[in-house]
Specification:
3 helices, single chain, about 90 residues, elongated, mainly alpha
Length: about 90
Amino acid sequence: MRRRIGRRALFFAVTAIVCLALVPATPPEFRWVAWGTAALAGFWALMFSIEDVIGAGPVEETIRSEAIPREPETPVAPPPRPGRRAS
């Protein structure tokens, strides 16, 4: 079964690429910031990719497959009928 890489991993991968592209345009005393953010974004891209590949999948699919009863659509009970006292 082939798993897809999620949006989070792609977002951080693109962020790392953008940070690396900005290194030459960054003043020399602040290049460590561009390198650091690229490394951090690359780390998260790698971690989210690993999670997508070996993870159990989205939580909703897991809940549906385990047949856990869903909560009611409305969080409150209907109002009492007229003429009766609420107890």
